[in-house]
Every structure is written in C-alpha cells, then in structure tokens.
Amino acid sequence: KTMKLAYWDIRGLAQPIRLLLEYTGTCYEEKFYTCGEGKVPFLKSVGLMRKTTTFKQFSLQLPYLEDGDRKITQSNAIMRYIARKHNLCGETEDEKVRVDIIENQAMDFRNGFVMLCYMDFDGKKDGYIENLPNTLGLFSKFLGDRTWFAGRKITFVDFIMYELLDQHRMFRPCCLNNFKNLKDFLDRFEGLDKIKAYMKSNRFIKTPVNNKMAKWGNKKE
C-alpha cells in the first residue's frame, strides 16, 4: 500500500522524512501545499481543512503522513514510525540512548536555525555564525570516529542530521572545514545507493529550503 506524505513545497521538516522513505524503499506519494502571501503561512488549498490526527487542533499541521487509516503528525513521530518498521531506531540500549539524545539535540539545533531564518536574520546572523563552530564541534565530538551517530548502523537520526548539516553547508559553505568527521558523514550518507539515486531524480527538492517569508533559503534555484 502507498503512504501519503503532505507538506509545503519546500525541504523544511519533510526532507528527512523523504530521505528515510526513499532509503527504506517505501512506496509513497507526496501532496504539496503552497504557502500564501503574508507573514504567517496559510494554505491556498482548503484541502487540508480536515482532521488529520485524533487532536482536532492539529488539523492544519504539516507535515503529516497517512498510512492506510493511520494519520500521523509531528515530524519526529513520523520519522520514528517509519524507522520502527525497518529497525532503524537503534538496537542496543546504548544506541537507543544516543538516538534519543541526537533526536532532541538536533531539534534544538534546527529550531535555532529556523528562528534565525524566519525572524531577525540581519540582526542575529553574525552572532549565529560566530557561535556555529561551537555547535558543530559538539556534534563532531558526539559522532567521534563512529560511522553513524548511534554507532555502526544507520538510524533515523542520521537522516535528520544529514539535512541539518547540509542546510548549514548551504548557508555557510566553509562551516564544516574544521570538522572532517562531519564532512565524511555527509559524503557517506550521499553515497548510499538509494539516497544517491533519489538525489539524481527529478523528485528531489534541492531548493527552496524554507518558505517564502523566510529571510534565507526561500528561493528556488
């Protein structure tokens, strides 16, 4: 059966989900929504005006995943749902702990970057860039000489971290120069057969990263 992934027509929160669906060979189709004008995203289509989870207040929440009668919101919940089907949540207790840590640390990292891109970009850009080596250094130290963030086997958090690091590489091309293990991680991820094929396909979204009201990553190139 075919899953359905719905999100804005950007990379955003859905990109790691797309990468994970591709890697696991999951049959899925995408439903794209276009952000309207203004400071707050709204839908040009009213097709999303319906309940997508058991919580009515989340009826407009993107992304969402439909798998038969099951409807899931929250990007990390979607990632875990797909990952559980393919044993990509860590195997040992140590691996599972590392997955949990990176899952949450990555969301903190992402939220800070999103705030920069959508809010006071000009006022906070210099400070963000100045602190970026410290942030990346923590992820580099956590990864160490491991193949993947949890250990020897890939888990769903690697897909989240790939997207975050790639976005920052686009934002600040030199930011990974002093972190060889993070650069190697990106190369290793892009070298995965199914990921490589997806990135070469016309389904892959390179840009835009963010919606049109963002100050960075809002252009389609």
From TrEMBL:
It comes from the Eukaryota. The keyword Hydrolase does not apply. InterPro entries: Glutathione-S-Trfase_C-like, Glutathione-S-Trfase_C_sf, Glutathione_S-Trfase, Glutathione_S-Trfase_N, GST_C, GST_mu, GST_superfamily, Thioredoxin-like_sf. Residues 92-209 form the GST C-terminal domain. It holds the Pfam family GST_N. It catalyses: RX + glutathione = an S-substituted glutathione + a halide anion + H(+). Residues 1-90 form the GST N-terminal domain. Conjugation of reduced glutathione to a wide number of exogenous and endogenous hydrophobic electrophiles. This is glutathione transferase. It comes from Periophthalmus magnuspinnatus.
